[in-house]
């Protein structure tokens, strides 16, 4: 298994305490798994010499070594990781292409179209929905187009508060470059440490502070997109009524309609103050009502999350604390005055909604751990646990039923497979009309953990669809969500996407099998 | 000329005071025009009996009388009105179809596709960009599909604060229906008295209170769209990352990609309090900077507008007041406490930005007159003046140059035609990254006022494009903006739209000649 398929900074790898191992064994029946395969089996590289020469003519950096191929063999879903741990790297690309700039991307796409080579655009490699597993069927090969060299801040307009980044800039680097000039993007999804600006755009990412800074699609002012048919440059004003908003076709296009090479985003002055507070609500129903009240009538903090009873308990146990009810986290950012004003209004409002103030410690604990879950997953997989997440969004009036249906579907499916799970949930993003639900599932790995999870995931997807909710609030479609996505946009929606793809990618080389049914 | 081509309620028609007539004559050289033609010349109805029978089979209400045809002969641009005044109703449809519901719309589209009849979807009929003038070339005829009978509130969800309207509901009726349950949409464009919910969606409308309630496209949660190829039902959650946002293809599609039959919108509780205040800034540069400060760092009122020096003077004269500097209007809405809090913060903030408080009277005057401009235009046209508007949006860093370039282009073009104009301007909508500019032009009518305005409009459009701004912030593309729109979205953008149109409207019957080059 490649080090690239453990999460993030190796020095921050998590070791599970013995007590947790014992608990996993006694409560969930988790047993030590087979040790990971020491070497994953790469398929033989499949590109012809002629195709390879065309790629080398188009791009200054083309690699076909095992290390590069393995590092681009999969995304970061639990299924991806389980397959690699089992030595299966069948989805590895034949070559990894790293263009230096937009023009090289354009040349690479032309070469791939001419030679019918499938293109997986690779940013941070953090897809959890199979977005990096292109179809090989009918193609002369598959290449990963890694945008790491598109790493510059092209322009910053402090008057209009916009910044134009090349697509390969990783989120922490983007924040560094903005901080030098006193600005922030304010986009902090759990994938923050690895994900890229282009990936955020291509997948409609939502950050943890979306109530304060907006989702990524709301931050995007402009896009530059390379396609086999030519380049689009979209977004020349803060708003326009000049026809359909074509940017919205590429936001969420997951590499299937074009390669986003530059993104112009709205930026904000770095907030001088922030205060993260915890609150206890009696139960998840009360927490949901309180979240709705804040989302609809304010005060709305930049971060607003609330855990259900079980997630509250599990988090408290892992922190060595005790807990009852449900934990809500509110993160307020702004000037000192603004933060003080919102904190005071929030205290008054939440008191009226049954919220008991827990002070800053729960908020600080959440801030410390906000990017830790993927490290923890690696350790849990090592220990033989199955751990994965499922997320959705629904209108407020449908949220309680959606919550119950998805939780029950996951629990029933896994219990039916002999591995009764823990299913934890929190509201992660709120809107005036509804909210997202983020489920975390922990169970013992069965003998075939991939099939085990796929069955549970299908049950959850069916429950989401039956509730009238969306199959994904922020993870995207990839390959894994296609059956439900097709129903969500309907026959005519699929026809529209196919038509757009034919216009921009007539050879169908862009991420085949991803997004489009 | 049809009464339908004077604006709104006849009892509110404006009569110009003699003083204004004298001023128009002396300052701008305005002379009494030829009296309007008493009867506009309708082209003979062009549909075959067979086509008409197919339409009657599809729809319970089909009219071919002169009155119905004339009422649907044009939109509300000054060019539309001048043509009708000159007796030219060449763009009148052959028939007016009023379907009762979504299914009848679908049947009508099928009949039109089968018989190659062009379809102009007609809501409030308030297009000012030629959006209701379909091409006849190559078609068996043109019909207006008037959605007036799609006039119901289908569903209101008070928990999620959403409402589903049929597309033909006029804005005042929508507000009435919502008010019965304590809600408002908060969408108040100048076309409010006539425009429809479906029209707002199809044209990406922006209301005067867009800073507080959002633009219409931001209010839209869901859409139901009839096309010749089938129906789309989009939007099942407050947000989704399930692929491109297909709603954004139909918002702004101006009847060229489908007929929007239902719109689900975000609603808000009716604000119990509002306070509209006026402020004087030294000049337009200072007013622009103040607007930017409020848009970027707050407090941001629901309505924020500021007039340039000339517009400030002209408005003051018409109110019988004197003025110097530039007038800013701020409209605050919410609970009593919220309004008091924002008003106080605004007073402090604007004091620091050089704003001198003028109290509530200028705000009240603006509220009284906010829907009056179209009535005034009728009276000015009667008196022989040419009056029309031009609007755009630009990033803050480009706004001052855009303002100067457009104003100068209009002035130079009209002066060059022997009719030096008054060019007034205000900032009408603000964003963190920029703002819209709304120009009003008044001059004497030349012998051919249509050609006169078209030359001035082309000069303005070229100046907007050269400034890098958008050809329209909220009026839409129609036929009039196509040359600039084509450049704005580029060759590949046009290819994308054409591909979508082919998929949904293979016979090309939907509003041919509008939106798509």
From TrEMBL, chains A, B:
Transmembrane segments: none annotated. Residues 89-270 form the FAD-binding PCMH-type domain. Keywords: FAD, Flavoprotein. The active site is at 438 (proton donor/acceptor). PROSITE patterns: FAD_PCMH. One of its GO terms (biological process) is lipid biosynthetic process. Signal peptide: none annotated. Pfam families: FAD-oxidase_C, FAD_binding_4. Gene3D superfamilies: 3.30.300.330, 3.30.465.10, Vanillyl-alcohol Oxidase, Chain A, domain 4 (1.10.45.10). Its cofactor is FAD. The record marks 305 as: Important for enzyme activity. It comes from the Bacteria. Substrate binds at residue 377. FAD binds at residues 203-206, 254-260. GO terms for molecular function: alkylglycerone-phosphate synthase activity; FAD binding. Belongs to the FAD-binding oxidoreductase/transferase type 4 family. This is Alkyldihydroxyacetonephosphate synthase. It comes from Planosporangium flavigriseum. The lineage of its organism: Bacteria, Bacillati, Actinomycetota, Actinomycetes, Micromonosporales.
């Amino acid at each position: 298994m490649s080090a690239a398929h453990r999460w993030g900074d190796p020095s921050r790898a998590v070791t599970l305490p013995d007590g947790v191992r014992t608990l996993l064994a006694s409560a969930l029946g988790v047993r030590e798994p087979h040790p990971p395969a020491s070497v994953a089996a790469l398929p033989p590289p499949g590109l012809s010499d002629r195709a390879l020469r065309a790629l080398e003519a188009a791009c200054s950096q083309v690699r076909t070594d095992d290390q590069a191929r393995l590092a681009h063999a999969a995304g970061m879903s639990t299924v991806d990781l389980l397959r690699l741990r089992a030595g299966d790297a069948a989805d590895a690309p034949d070559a990894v292409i790293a263009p230096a700039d937009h023009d090289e991307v354009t040349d690479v796409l032309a070469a791939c179209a001419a030679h019918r080579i499938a293109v997986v655009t690779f940013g941070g490699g953090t897809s959890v929905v199979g977005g990096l597993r292109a179809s090989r069927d009918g193609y002369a090969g598959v290449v990963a187009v890694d945008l790491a060299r598109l790493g510059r801040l092209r322009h910053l307009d402090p008057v209009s508060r916009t910044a134009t980044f090349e697509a390969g800039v990783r989120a922490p680097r983007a924040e560094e470059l903005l901080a030098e000039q006193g600005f922030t993007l304010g986009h902090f999804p759990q994938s923050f440490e690895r994900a890229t600006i282009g990936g955020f755009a291509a997948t409609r990412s939502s950050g943890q502070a979306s109530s304060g800074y907006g989702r990524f699609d709301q931050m995007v002012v402009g896009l530059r997109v390379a396609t086999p048919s030519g380049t689009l440059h979209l977004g020349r004003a803060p708003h326009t009524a000049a026809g359909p908003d074509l940017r919205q076709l590429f936001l969420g296009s997951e590499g299937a309609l074009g390669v986003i090479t530059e993104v112009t985003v709205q930026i904000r002055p770095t907030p001088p103050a922030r205060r993260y507070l915890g609150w206890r609500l009696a139960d998840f129903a009360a927490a949901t009502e309180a979240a709705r009240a804040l989302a609809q009538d304010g005060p709305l903090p930049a971060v607003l999350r609330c855990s259900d009873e079980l997630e509250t308990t599990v988090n408290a146990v892992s922190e060595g604390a005790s807990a009852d009810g449900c934990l809500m986290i509110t993160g307020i950012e702004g000037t000192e005055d603004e933060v003080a004003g919102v904190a005071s209004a929030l205290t008054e409002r939440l008191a009226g909604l049954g919220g008991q103030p827990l002070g800053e410690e729960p908020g600080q604990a959440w801030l410390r751990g906000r990017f830790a879950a993927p490290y923890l997953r690696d350790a849990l997989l090592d220990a033989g646990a199955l751990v994965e997440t499922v997320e959705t969004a629904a209108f407020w009036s449908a949220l309680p039923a959606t919550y119950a249906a998805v939780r029950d579907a996951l629990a029933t499916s896994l219990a039916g497979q002999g591995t009764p799970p823990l299913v934890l949930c929190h509201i992660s993003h709120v809107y005036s009309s509804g909210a997202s639900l983020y489920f975390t599932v922990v169970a013992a790995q069965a003998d075939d953990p991939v099939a085990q999870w796929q069955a549970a995931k299908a049950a959850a997807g069916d429950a989401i669809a039956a509730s009238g909710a969306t199959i994904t609030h922020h993870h995207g479609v990839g390959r894994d969500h296609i059956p439900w996505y097709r129903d969500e946009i309907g026959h005519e929606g699929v026809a529209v996407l196919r038509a757009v793809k034919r216009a921009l990618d007539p050879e169908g080389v862009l991420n085949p099998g991803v997004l489009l049914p």
